[in-house]
Amino acid sequence: MPISHDMKSRALKGLNGAGFKTEIPRIFVSMWVLFVFTYLSFGALLELVRRWSDEPEYGHGWLVPFIVAYLCAQYREHVHRQPPSAMAVVLMIVASLMTFIGMVSGLFLLVQLALVIVIMALVALWLGVAGLRLLLWPLGFLIFCIPLPYVIEVAFTAKLQLLSSRIAVDVIRMMGIVVYLSGNVIDLGLVKLQVVEACSGLRYLYPLMSLGYLAAYCYQGPLWIRGIIFVATIPITVVLNSLRIAVMAWLVEHFGLAVAEGFFHDFEGWLIFALCMVLLALLLWALNAIFTRHSIWQYLGVTSSESVAYTARSISRPRSRAALGGVALLSALTLIAGYAVAHRQLVIPPAVHMSSFPLEWGDWRGEHRPLSTGVAESLGIDDYLFINFSATKAQVPVNFYVAYYANQRAGQSPHSPKVCIPGGGWQIETITRIMVQGQAVNRVVIARQGVKQLVYYGFMERGQWAADEYWRKWLLLKDFLVYGRSDGALIRLTTPLHTQERIEDADARLTDLFIHLRVGITAYLPAPP
Q1: Contact 459/472 with Cβ under 8 angstroms?
Q2: Cα(458)–Cα(470) distance, rounded to whole angstroms?
Q3: What are phi and psi of 345, to 5 degrees?
Q4: Which residue from 34, 48, 100, 184 has the fewest beta carbons nearer than 10 Å?
């Protein structure tokens, strides 16, 4: 319903006729909040900009803030100032905790999400709960400019690769072409096509989900139709990406491998994304035509008569001052805590010297393989082991790799194998967690161009073994707060899988060497606090 002049007058009474001068405290507090969280989140913001610039699947992130600003501006006639709300304090508490935990654990995702919550807190500070309720969905669109953490992104990419490959092979067979699928490699006989990470469909999925959210927001019809539109972005992306792979395979079969590279490959990618948007629009039109029997143009818009109903609340002057003071105080406390985290004197354990690590363990004999200086520097490691072990009873070698970091608060930490394995061109076929003598270990089967390997890995965090990477982050947070320590290491064993070899034999190799080395390596890493 439209907002009457009386409603606006009643709402503004809470400001006691406040003009610019009486709003100076609120302006100052808002600027203070923005300064504090921009300062504390500067590293996370730089990472955000880097991923927008370097990773095509997140390139739309540059546009999202402008779209959100436009959507919020459409409500400028429907919202008005209210006294500071206590909701601003609640949101600031959440944002402060997320920022602090994100800074300690090195999780940029938490810090970036905290910035979105800070913006919501400022809305509640100026427009109250009613204004926040109106702008909640436009502000929620900011989530789509925040990239996924690499660990989650790699897991999604691997699943999308395999799913797209399987569907594509079914389509290829329907075309009458003989094809064989091995992992993510499509074997056409004379030519083999590998469905790499870039062809997984994630480059379409995340931008299309953003468009799906935007379409669902702008469509003011039934809520369940809006939900379907958003969820439908996932199957649309998977199916059309699979069709793209199948068409590419058909073209390679008939015109050669050249059509799968260069301009034609990129052009096909843009064409498929355009088709995804067309299908999404057609689905919205069809659902609206079948179930509402009204013109779709009646439901399109960024506001509706129902959504602009604004209920002004009368808030006492002491409560509004308390809310304003609470926001300012929380920002100050967050700044102090963040500064303390960034400048806390760390307890650096005595230097480790892994070069003296024994090369004989039972029947196993090892040989050091030094990393190049450039690789070691790019990894940021303080010390490492890279040893090839072999045994008389095991003709196939096992590589033992340990990457040790004395300080994981300096922006360096062990690279998750879930990220660096695909980064090296390997495809993760399976990843499970097994128990080796009561110790949880990650077991990964990887493949590249027909070659397979078996990998066991885990993390040693200040004398504590951790297989789960988020549990490792919790240990880092706890030990940093309690003991001031942030050292840790990645421990990984890798062995080739020969074509004629049973995978059980490879498991036996890694298990045997892991049992020998697990105890031995603890003597060369810093002891528990």
Answers
A1: yes
A2: 12
A3: -70, 110
A4: 34
Distance CA 355, CA 277 (A): 57
Mean pLDDT of all residues in 186-201 = 71
DSSP, collapsed to helix, strand or coil, labels residue 465 as strand
| 356, 119 contact by CB (below 8 A) | no
Contact in structure between 517 and 510 (CB atoms under 8 Å) = no
Paired strand residues for 493:
400, 456
The pair of three-digit structure tokens given for residue 466, joined into one six-digit string: 């951790």
CA distances from 351 to 383, 404, 487, 488 (A): 9, 10, 11, 13
Q: How far apart are the first and last CA of the chain?
A: 63
Instruction: Name 39's Cβ contacts closer than 8 Å, sequence gap at least 6.
Output: 335, 338
Q: Tell me which amino acid residue 428 is.
A: I
* Residue showing tokens 């994304």: 273
Query: Taking a C-beta distance cutoff of 8 angstroms, is the pair 269, 260 a contact?
Result: no
Task: Please report, as a single letter, which amino acid is at residue 219.
Answer: Y
Contact 165, 181 (CB under 8 A): yes
> For residues 328 and 325, what is the distance between their CA atoms, to the nearest angstrom?
5
Distances in Å between the alpha carbon of 37 and those of 32, 97, 143, 173, 199?
9, 12, 17, 55, 37
Query: Cβ(526)–Cβ(350) under 8 Å?
Result: yes
Q: Tell me which residue has tokens 């502000």.
A: 139
The one-letter amino acid at 256: G
Q: Who contacts 188 (Cβ-Cβ below 8 Å, separation ≥6)?
A: 177, 178, 179, 249, 252, 253
In eight-state DSSP terms, residue 425 is T
Chain mean position to CA 483: 29
Measure the CA–CA gap between 461 and 450, rounded to whole angstroms: 35
Average pLDDT, whole number, for the chain? 83
Beta bridge mates, 402: 385, 491
pLDDT digits (tens, 9 = 90+) for 58-72: 999 999 999 999 999
Using a 10 angstrom Cβ sphere, with 0-12 exposed, 13-18 middle and 19 or more buried, the burial of residue 227 is exposed
d(CA 439, CA 467): 9
| pTM score of the predicted model | 0.76
- CA atoms of 139 and 67, how far apart (whole Å): 10
- Per-residue pLDDT of 18-50, as tens digits, reads 455 678 889 999 999 999 999 999 989 999 999
Per-residue pLDDT, averaged over 165-191, amounts to 81
Task: Supply angle C-alpha 237, 238, 241, rounded to 5.
Answer: 80
Whether the predicted pLDDT of 128 surpasses 70: yes
Angle at 410 between CA 408 and CA 415, to 5 degrees: 50
Question: Quick check: 184 and 198 in contact, CB under 8 A?
Answer: no
Rounded Cα distance between 243 and 198, Å, is 15
Structural domains in the chain, CATH included, are 5-147+313-343 (no CATH), 151-298 (no CATH), 354-522 (3.40.1000)
* Separation of alpha carbons 500 and 522, rounded Å: 35
Report yes or no: 96 and 333 within 8 Å, Cβ to Cβ. yes
